[in-house]
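pls read this stuff:
=====
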Amino acid sequence: ILFKYSYNGLWHLLVDKEMKKTDLKEIAGLTPSTLARLSKNEEVSLKVLGRICKELDCNFSDIIEYVKD
């Protein structure tokens, strides 16, 4: 079973905070491959999402959305 996700909330949050994806990569300690997965709306670990939420002071619901078929 393949699930679909959208990280549009994350990208909007970065714009609101005047940050770039590379800024997020640095502060949350993301690897280039993890950043690429986020950019392609692919799955990443809860640990990664948790680090992003910690650094951006937000909740999962602010950065990720489950997309129904």
Summary: The longest strand covers residues 4-6. The chain has a mean pLDDT of 95. The helical segments are 8-16, 21-28, 32-39, 46-56, 60-63. The radius of gyration is 11 Å.
